[in-house]
Design goal:
1051 residues, mainly alpha, 3-stranded antiparallel sheet
Length: 1051
């Protein structure tokens, strides 16, 4: 036989087995006792009880009952099967006339004729006479039998026999239905399986119980897989092709699939169905060519559904209502999809492992979803990847949820030791180790082949999906936002062009432009907007986000427990910092050194395990009703995690992850709409771990973010420092953090000096850029206004060039002014709290120079050039900025070293500017009291006096020998040191200031540390000798001058 014939023969064998009862069931109907009815007496004509005198009466009664049951069976079979042996009864056209022989002609229908009757109708006569398809006939038979069985009375003495007859009809009708799906050509009527499957899912509410019986028959006869292969692929293909235009057909198909999987045998063999997990698939093929991909992709994020739900005509209130409706629908949908997956997992064994393998392969082949330049059409959709992430979130609730953290110990910490990992980690960046270090540590001989428990597999799959599944959604949202912005600009230009030409519908060129450009662009723009709204719908679903965030906190708990040297977290608080760097900022910035301190195996874990967690919190923090808001217990745990990562440089070396953590805390620090503190501020002030370490963590990262390794690092640092500055501003409401700054400045001077150095660099650059762009804005605004009034151009720029220059400067000014405002504010706060810390030799001169320079810019001869229209649009308040600069002067007014530093500033110190500043501050109402003015002017007077004294002394000293001058500042050296590589001598104070920004020899760029230099004792002695000699000569000259004038020294 051919292969096909063999298969058919096997199916026929199963057909025979399916429609035949065991031998004991072929006994006389009257003698069969239904299962569970052992206490019911047999009804048999041979049964005898009592005395012989009773025999005739009882025998008559028995015969009567037998006649009654025979009549009942005949009537029921005629009604239910719609068959008869009577030609006269068949003339009505409502019954099939069975072929009679000598033994059956004119006979009643009996239990033994049920199977032959059904077989004759289905395989010989056909059902077309009464029914459209065999499926409808069989369902009709099953349904009538089921209804008849339901009305059998419990006290009916013939009940057991009636039930047995009806059960046989039900069994055979469902068996033949099962066979119909597997061997459709066995029936005389043509069976179109596509139509049958279509009929099944469309009427699933009617057919559900019938389908359960069909599946049970297939299971009993070992033909489960044949039935699944006949039905399931057709259902999933239909799911793939549905238009989802507002109907609920997909819900019906899901119901059919759930009915199948409610049978444990089906769940056990589901992974064997054709198309479950074909080999060699990539990206989007997992969604289009696998059974689970086609089933689990359904959500409101599918493009077709999004466009249907969010037409361009919706108003904002209507959008919110649509959000609410879809959020409820999405939650229900996720529940149903999870139920499908949960059934496969609970089936255990190979079914569970194949499901996990499919989940892993999907995410392993869709890593590019996080790439900014990925092609979405070649990757699994946001809809599928989001659903899979949410399904894993539900799987994780028993061990990562608030009530299940006690089971967190069941997660394998030695995941990397397993050879048979489902997740592809080969090329993944490690948290704080190179790939070479990872490969050296996890050599092949150290790997084990033992399987992991389900909790571990689920946990590490979840971490991966948080990054590439849910994380890909962030990228999609940003990409859609960019598309919408670009297309809106393009559409605006096209519409403006049409307006300029005064186009109307009768203009063929404009009509062609509209039809070929504008109309398609509008349609595409509408699609992108709808898709972005569908993503916003998900992230504004607080209930769902609370579920996700709860699992995020569970993941965080696992990692902090892994970091903890005692592994007792959260039962016992973590001791932070993990290592004491003793204010050695060089060691803290040395990535190679800090890596050696990173805990194992944490340092070798893929960075994406943390990245997915941090990226989620970073993205949702921009939503007003995000899951961190009014979620105190879990928020506590998150902020602890953020502070630990920032406080311990040995844990994470990636500055971008730390920057996102600070941005999350920035959003949590923003004042609420009711004027109350941001929702994280209370955690900052009340959580002991956070409170103790937050200030130093923020200041440390303020310093470290100078270098991010990215091409945009110069501008990246400003964003992070702005966020840190804002958080610090909020912390300043509490005295504890003010005292903490004083402690840091005293106990960690290296960190503090580097911090202020970074702040000085930023302020100098940002204020300079801000004022330059504001000058450009003012110039352009005045020129444009001049031309609009009919004046002749005063420069060579065209109107378009002038407009472009204005737009560019406005964009830059908004950013730079905002950043500079925060940095100046920090200087005001810090100098007021710890003024002595700012007069260190490394800082005083630079701070004085920065303040003097910007004071001149604000009140000097060119201050009028900073006047712009609507300065508030750029957050530029010249009066407030001037007030803060003057406040810094006042904060340091009592520090003589700072007075001296200002006096030494030959480039920018202008005493008259201080009086001009007070005049302006009076004018704008910024002078708080008379003391403010007197202190500021008094400071300026002291600095002016000091400047005059130094000038006179310098004049008296005369020309200084070149060898005594500092080679960088050309000032007389006081404490010369010799550099080890260039052998150049330089003043120690100048070198300290240089090394704050550049740890190299200023003359040959070789790496240099302050402790590497040596005191140039010989040169210092020479300088001191020269100074003494010069001063002695000066005194002698003065004495001679006084003697010549007649003044005699009486001493």
């Amino acid at each position: 036989m051919s292969s096909a014939e063999e298969i058919r023969a096997k199916r026929l064998a199963r057909l025979t087995a399916a429609t035949q009862q065991p031998t004991e069931e072929k006994k006389s109907v009257s003698k069969v006792q239904p299962k569970g009815k052992e206490n019911v007496k047999e009804i048999s004509p041979t049964t005898t009880t009592g005395t012989s005198s009773m025999m005739p009466e009882r025998k008559t009664r028995k015969v009567k009952k037998q006649e009654d049951i025979d009549e009942w069976i005949n009537n029921q079979l005629e009604r239910i099967l719609q068959v008869t042996f009577s030609p006269s009864k068949s003339e009505s056209g409502k019954l099939f006339l069975l072929t009679a022989d000598d033994t059956t002609e004119g006979s009643r229908l009996t239990f033994d004729t049920i199977d032959p009757a059904l077989l004759e109708v289905l395989t010989e006569q056909g059902v077309k006479k009464l029914y459209a398809t065999p499926f409808k006939y069989l369902f009709s038979v099953w349904s009538r039998a089921d209804s008849a069985r339901r009305v059998i009375r419990s006290d009916d003495p013939l009940g057991p026999v009636k039930a047995q007859t009806l059960n046989e009809i039900i069994r055979l009708s469902s068996s033949y239905s099962s066979i119909m799906f597997q061997v459709p050509d066995m029936f005389v009527d043509e069976v179109n399986l596509d139509q049958v499957v279509d009929e099944l899912w469309r009427g699933v509410n009617v057919y559900e119980s019938f389908l359960i019986d069909i599946i049970a028959r297939a299971t009993e006869n070992d033909s489960t897989l044949d039935l699944l292969n006949a039905v399931i692929p057709k259902l999933t293909v239909k799911l793939q092709k549905l238009e989802y235009s507002g109907d609920t057909d997909y819900l019906k198909i899901l119901t059919v699939i759930q009915v199948f999987l409610s049978n444990k045998t089906v769940a056990l063999h589901f992974h064997e169905v054709n198309g479950y997990h074909p080999e060699g698939l990539k990206g989007v093929e997992f969604e289009n060519k696998t059974l689970l991909g086609q089933i689990l992709r359904i959500s409101p994020l599918l493009p077709a559904i999004a466009v249907s739900n969010y037409p361009d005509t919706l108003t904002k209130p209507m959008i919110m209502k649509t959000h609410e409706s879809l959020q409820a629908e999405h939650s229900i949908m996720i529940g149903r999809l999870f139920s499908i997956c949960d059934t496969l997992v609970r089936a255990g064994g190979e079914a569970r492992q194949e499901f996990l393998k499919w989940m892993a392969d999907v995410v392993n082949n869709n890593h590019l979803r996080r790439g900014e330049h990925a092609k979405p059409e070649k990757l699994a959709s946001d809809s599928l990847m989001l659903n899979l992430t949410l399904i894993l979130v539900r799987f994780s609730q028993p061990f990562l949820g608030a009530g299940g953290l006690g089971r967190i110990n069941k997660i394998s910490q030695d995941y990397l030791n397993h050879r048979n990992k489902l997740i592809a980690l080969k090329d993944e960046t490690r948290i704080n180790a190179t790939l070479e270090e990872y490969n050296e540590y996890y050599t092949d001989d150290k790997l084990v082949d033992s399987p992991m428990n389900f909790i571990s597999e689920c946990f590490y799959l979840l971490l991966t999906y948080l990054q590439y599944g849910l994380g890909g959604l962030f990228v999609s949202a940003d990409r859609l936002g960019n598309y919408i912005k670009q297309m809106s600009q393009q559409l605006k230009k096209l519409e403006e062009m049409m307006q300029r030409t005064a186009a109307n519908s009768s203009n063929p060129l404009m009509k062609m432009l509209y039809d070929t450009k504008v109309k398609p662009l509008k349609k595409e723009l509408e699609k992108y907007k709808a898709r972005k709204l569908s993503i916003e719908m998900f992230f504004s679903n607080r209930t769902m986000q609370l579920d996700v965030f709860e699992i995020i906190i569970g993941c965080i708990t696992f990692f902090v427990k892994l970091i903890d040297p005692t592994h007792k977290y959260p039962e016992e608080p973590l001791k932070v910092p993990l290592h004491d760097f003793e204010d050695n900022t060089e060691k803290m910035e040395d990535i190679e050194y800090t890596r050696t301190l990173a805990p194992v195996p944490f340092r070798y874990y893929p960075e994406m395990f943390l990245e997915g967690i941090i990226n989620y919190c970073h993205y949702v923090s921009r939503y007003n009703n995000n899951p961190m808001f009014q979620n105190e217990d879990k928020l506590d745990r998150f902020v602890e995690f953020a502070v630990v990562i920032l406080r311990c440089p040995e844990l994470v070396s990636n500055p971008h992850l730390k920057a996102r953590l600070t941005e999350v805390m920035f959003f949590g620090s923003l004042p609420l709409q009711n004027g109350r503190n941001g929702y994280m501020v209370e955690v900052f002030n009340n959580n002991s771990i956070v409170k103790k370490n937050l200030m130093v963590s923020l200041l440390d990262f303020y310093v470290m973010v100078e270098k991010t390794g990215a091409s945009s690092q110069f501008y990246d640092k400003f964003n992070s420092r702005y966020h840190i500055s804002f958080i610090l501003e909020q912390l300043w409401k509490f005295d504890y953090f003010k005292r903490d700054l004083q402690r840091i400045s005293q106990q960690m001077p290296q960190l503090f000096i580097r911090l202020i150095a970074r702040m000085l660099n930023d302020t100098t650059y940002l204020l300079d850029e801000s004022l330059n762009h504001l000058h450009t804005i003012g110039t352009c605004q005045r020129e444009i206004e001049h031309r609009q009034k009919g004046g002749q151009p005063t420069n060579d720029d065209s109107d378009e060039e002038l407009k472009k220059k204005l737009e560019d400067s406005e964009r830059m000014a908004k950013s730079f002014v905002q950043l500079s405002n925060k940095t100046v504010l920090l200087f005001d706060l810090f100098t007021k709290e710890t003024p002595r810390s700012f007069v260190m030799v490394e800082l005083a001169d630079r701070l004085a120079g920065m303040l003097d320079y910007n004071l001149v810019a604000l009140v000097g001869p060119k201050y009028n050039e900073l006047r712009v229209k609507n300065p508030e649009a750029y957050q530029f308040s010249p009066g407030e900025l001037l007030f803060q600069l003057c406040s810094i002067f006042i904060n340091l007014a009592n520090e003589q070293e700072f007075v001296d530093a200002v006096a030494r500033d030959e480039r920018s110190f202008r005493p008259e500017c201080f009086k001009k500043a007070t005049d302006i501050l009076y004018k704008v109402g910024k002078i708080p009291n008379k003391q403010f003015e007197s202190t500021l002017l008094g400071f300026a007077k002291r600095a002016e006096t000091k400047k005059r004294e130094e000038e006179e002394e310098e004049l008296e000293m005369g020309d200084v020998p070149d060898e005594f001058l500092d080679p960088l500042m050309f000032t007389l050296m006081k404490d010369p040191v010799k550099l080890p590589h260039s052998k150049v001598s330089i003043d120690r104070s100048v070198l300290k200031a240089h090394l704050m920004n550049d740890p190299t020899d200023p003359f040959n760029r070789t790496p240099l540390k302050l402790e590497d230099v040596a005191d140039d004792v010989e040169l210092r002695d020479k300088i001191q000798t020269w100074i003494k000699t010069r001063k002695a000569a000066i005194r002698k000259e003065k004495q001679l001058a006084r003697d010549a004038d007649g003044d005699t020294d009486m001493t």
